[in-house]
Amino acid sequence: MLIIGTFQQSIELEQALSVIEKSGIPRDHIMVVAMDAKPDAPFQLMTKSHDPYSKAVEVGFATATASTVIGTSFGFILAWGPILCGLFAAIIGFFLGYGVYSIVEKNRSPQKQSQKLPEITVIIQCAEEKSHNIREILWSYRALTVGRTPEPS
Who contacts 94 (Cβ-Cβ below 8 Å, separation ≥6)? Predict the structure, then answer.
């Protein structure tokens, strides 16, 4: 019988492995695998840019577009005309959007940058009679998931 459990990297994992060894499962029947959090060589399409300023430029262009529409509309009323008012509004809108987005991103807490530790998968080979006890041990030490399967022949 193969018992498979996943854990977050923690002291509970170490304690569970210790209890399993003390319950009579030899160390060579326990396999621990640290899962990769990211692929080694990621295949990335060039559709998204991870440059911190590219998103600010996109926001700047969006606010420039909106400002141009509003500036052109006011230009029909003002003496400068719709073309000049639209151009001035576009320039002001771009720098306003770019600047506000850059300031907000600079002051944002680095939640994305905090890396979660990878999950750990534990595979235990044991007799059918011990499988229930091993599963209970894994659950009692905060396993994320626990599964079992018969041994492949």
Answer: 60, 61, 63, 64, 67
